[in-house]
């Protein structure tokens, strides 16, 4: 089932999410709905706060990058099958020299900006079966994970922009929160006026 994606301005996007346990109600259905929602919006990642749930859960599917000519053949092969669920994730280490990449967000449609992130991340998490992992990821996969991880920490990619960039997009962000934007997927706007 495709769920509405919460838009910029909703307080849930600013909350540090809480951990869940294996008994979380209908977790399998929630994860399935999150993948449906992400694919319906043509995204590569989605965090639970983006559908209004302040819990430490996010999903990633890097396969849209499999044909990216900037990636090596080995990287293209890796991203083509990279689809994961991250529950109660904690980043243990971010490593390397920061690099810029143009990021967007399903909760902040039609705004894309270069964001600097480290190229390597070590993360501890549980999968959908509550099996625990500690893995290190690099490149585009690390970036997607860092972006989604920020969501469960109450951080948005726009927070990482310069003061000038933030000033330049301020009006666009206000319009998004008011629902003054045309998107091709279901959204929930925090400040949209209710029709009578």
From TrEMBL:
<dbReference type="GO" id="GO:0046872">
    <property type="term" value="F:metal ion binding"/>
</dbReference>
<keyword id="KW-0479">Metal-binding</keyword>
<protein>
    <recommendedName>
        <fullName>Peptide deformylase</fullName>
        <ecNumber>3.5.1.88</ecNumber>
    </recommendedName>
</protein>
<dbReference type="GO" id="GO:0042586">
    <property type="term" value="F:peptide deformylase activity"/>
</dbReference>
<feature type="binding site">
    <location>
        <position position="151"/>
    </location>
    <ligand>
        <name>Fe cation</name>
    </ligand>
</feature>
<dbReference type="Pfam" id="PF01327">
    <property type="entry name" value="Pep_deformylase"/>
</dbReference>
<dbReference type="InterPro" id="IPR036821">
    <property type="entry name" value="Peptide_deformylase_sf"/>
</dbReference>
<comment type="similarity">
    <text>Belongs to the polypeptide deformylase family.</text>
</comment>
<feature type="binding site">
    <location>
        <position position="105"/>
    </location>
    <ligand>
        <name>Fe cation</name>
    </ligand>
</feature>
<keyword id="KW-0408">Iron</keyword>
<feature type="binding site">
    <location>
        <position position="147"/>
    </location>
    <ligand>
        <name>Fe cation</name>
    </ligand>
</feature>
<keyword id="KW-0648">Protein biosynthesis</keyword>
<dbReference type="InterPro" id="IPR023635">
    <property type="entry name" value="Peptide_deformylase"/>
</dbReference>
<feature type="active site">
    <location>
        <position position="148"/>
    </location>
</feature>
<keyword id="KW-0378">Hydrolase</keyword>
<dbReference type="GO" id="GO:0006412">
    <property type="term" value="P:translation"/>
</dbReference>
<comment type="function">
    <text>Removes the formyl group from the N-terminal Met of newly synthesized proteins. Requires at least a dipeptide for an efficient rate of reaction. N-terminal L-methionine is a prerequisite for activity but the enzyme has broad specificity at other positions.</text>
</comment>
């Amino acid at each position: 089932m495709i769920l509405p994606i919460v838009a910029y301005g909703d307080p849930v996007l600013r909350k540090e999410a809480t951990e869940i346990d294996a008994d979380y109600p209908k977790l399998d259905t929630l994860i399935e709905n999150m993948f449906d929602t992400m694919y319906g919006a043509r995204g590569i990642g989605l965090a639970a706060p983006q559908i209004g749930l302040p819990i430490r859960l996010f999903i990633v599917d890097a396969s849209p990058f499999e044909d990216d000519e900037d990636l090596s053949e080995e990287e293209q092969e890796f991203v083509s099958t990279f689809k994961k669920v991250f529950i109660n994730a904690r980043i243990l280490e971010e490593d390397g020299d920061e690099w810029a990449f143009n990021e967007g967000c399903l909760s902040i449609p039609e705004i894309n900006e270069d964001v600097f992130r480290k190229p390597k991340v070590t993360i501890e998490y549980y999968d959908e079966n509550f099996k625990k992992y500690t893995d290190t990821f690099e490149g585009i996969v690390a970036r997607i994970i860092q972006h989604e991880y920020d969501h469960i920490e109450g951080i948005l990619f726009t927070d990482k922009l310069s003061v000038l960039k933030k000033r330049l997009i301020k009006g666009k962000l206000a319009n998004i929160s008011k629902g003054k934007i045309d998107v091709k997927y279901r959204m929930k706007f925090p400040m949209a006026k209710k029709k009578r």
